[in-house]
Amino acid sequence: MSKSHTIRTAEIICVGTELLMGQVINSNANFLASELVSLGISSYRQITIGDNMQRLREQILASAKRSDLVVITGGLGPTSDDITMEAAAEVAGKQLELHDPSYEHIKQYYRRICRNMPQNNIKQAMIPPESIVFINKNGTAPGAMFLCNASTEDDPVHQSYLVLLPGPPSEMRPMFLEQVRPFLEKHNSARFRTEFVRLYGIGESAAEERVKDLIDAQTNPTIAPYASEGECLFRITQRIESENEADLISPIVDTFKERFGDYIYEIGGRSLKEVVFDLLFERKMTLSFAESCTAGMASSEFVDVPGSSKVLMGSIVAYDNNVKEQLLGVTADVLTDMGSVSRECAEQMAEGCRKLLNTDIAVSITGIAGPTAYGTNKPVGLVYLAISDKNGTEVSEINLSGNRMRVRRVSVLHAFNMIRKRLQ
Amino acid sequence: MSKSHTIRTAEIICVGTELLMGQVINSNANFLASELVSLGISSYRQITIGDNMQRLREQILASAKRSDLVVITGGLGPTSDDITMEAAAEVAGKQLELHDPSYEHIKQYYRRICRNMPQNNIKQAMIPPESIVFINKNGTAPGAMFLCNASTEDDPVHQSYLVLLPGPPSEMRPMFLEQVRPFLEKHNSARFRTEFVRLYGIGESAAEERVKDLIDAQTNPTIAPYASEGECLFRITQRIESENEADLISPIVDTFKERFGDYIYEIGGRSLKEVVFDLLFERKMTLSFAESCTAGMASSEFVDVPGSSKVLMGSIVAYDNNVKEQLLGVTADVLTDMGSVSRECAEQMAEGCRKLLNTDIAVSITGIAGPTAYGTNKPVGLVYLAISDKNGTEVSEINLSGNRMRVRRVSVLHAFNMIRKRLQ
Predict the structure, then answer these.
(1) Is there a contact between A14 and A48 (Cβ–Cβ < 8 Å)?
(2) What single DSSP character describes residue A303?
(3) Predicted complex ipTM
(4) From B405, which residue of chain A is nearest by alpha-carbon distance?
(5) What is the CATH number of the domain that holds B369?
(6) What CA dihedral angle connects B378, B379, B380 and B385, to 10 degrees?
(7) Which chain A residue's Cα is nearest to B17?
């Protein structure tokens, strides 16, 4: 790949019958689109298409003619349906050849999981020569990048980079971030500085209203709000021509701090649980959860942070009232008189958990996740949380809307946020 | 709209810069795709495109030439960015005219929310004459359907239905279900019967090899394999002209049963955890988990099944060895000599948990999820699981590849599968 040109425009092609049939949501297009935006590459089209050789070839060629880069996901599996590599190679006028390092990697993969490699997996190591090959750390299919001639009337020597990536997000995302993105950073002209302001406890539209004047007046930097379940974040992006340009982001961040105060849990890249982990880790403090309606989700989420074993000692999933009573020491009086979804129960759960697991902090969660509120007159979405440490126990009551999964997810975020507020 | 033809093929176009920028996930494409499948309409392409007049017109025409139906979502708002109606009308060679009932509806909408109608909302009532207009019960933008001449070399009188729907899913979905779908049901001929065969414990390519002869010979029914994390499923689809047609699916399912035996956990729609829940619930049995590396994920996943409180009593997240020792009764000898990731530790965890939480079945999970194997010489991905009931305790050793999240997720599936195999 001796030639090199600037990449300004891209199209995204997602290959897979399961996408065309509506069996899975296309999160790859979304991920790649936002990555391309952050790289300053304009993408004008996303296409989803099935495993049909003729249609796929036509589509790759059409996309290559229109853009400098075509990112194609899916269809790199070992089965006869998986035709993306072959189709892209044909469009680029290349033959497939056995790529020995990839073949070795696939064989190793099967050795590691103690299974025999099915014979058809050899197909995944067939790659056009002179490709850049991307290693797949989370599966068997390697990715590849190669140039494709795609002349147009306007530009008879137009070439486009074809980037082929596996379809499963758990394989595609790390491959893109670790191996494709660094290449693209070198081959595009635009530069950006970006900062994130992350908030918990305020809704998207309320948050947006507080900074509406800034958003309306934006030119450079731009300010974009994003909302995800229970959280809200702003991305502030300054387009720069060189690294020496003045920092226009910090003054905006300062204004955000003034207006949002304690809602802000992070200026930067860390998630709420990472912030909580760092706070606890710095203080050498240990943590446990007593979970009823979330049933292990808080613990499991927290453990996503590598190194969490130094902080989280363990948790009690007390789904049944007997477990609350016998293990966590919630009194029979409280369970009978107040019920398991009550201020008092949350308090006793946190205190009992802290004692039982001998941790510096314990957080309890008990609520009604729905779909119905079995045998109580309390509303679905009512959740009590308590945080207990050597200075005492504090209870928080929240009323959440949404389905069972959302109530549980937001409860977990709220638990994390209680720890942050206690320590920050 | 006097003409009427059968609708067999469709394309979906989603209009919106926020989709192209990756700011929101495209759930409309997914919804519409699965609706079209259930109507027996084949869709070969989904396209996402921005609010650019020329590109949008070209795309609508290209899609109309290739198919009998083009469903277009988004870009029906009141602002100058919203150009979908105008673009589609131009492609169809039609003028926009004020549609009085729609204009009335928009004015009413604003009266209902006690606001003045902004003047630019009148634009949303501009619709080509002779359209079928869809009322928007959840917003202001009406939808519309009209025919578009889109001659091709093969078919000089080819026409395609253009269906325009608003972008917000809360407006688009009810409009489609209540007003578009009934029309499409009348104008297409195909019907399908579908069955799913769901497997655990066998990889996608190994599974496919076992039924390669069936897949290669498929015409009707068709057989399509799908893989998701740690699981594998086949969709068998029979195209029928009427409900009376002979069942061609059952013989294929029987062949699958012969060839896959115990790998099959479900013929139908239930997930693995739902199968496990049903098995336990029918037998009035209670369950608990003792989780180390999964740290609550098994319990939390299981609780996704509504009604799970009748089966899952609680769980112990024993992340730290002290918790394993003090709560679950894992002996110091085992922890010192064998380590926490060992056959013996898994066994003692399950037995201790079953005793502590007093359940019929307890399942333990202890393994090395990565990214590194802190201070042991055991490999990342090594996981021990044990299931304990009144008949004794059984241990299973697995070696998983992939990242931390995958190791934990597949471990949870494996735990569920152990319960299934014990009971089925």
Answers:
(1) yes
(2) T
(3) 0.73
(4) A304
(5) 3.90.950.20
(6) -70
(7) A44
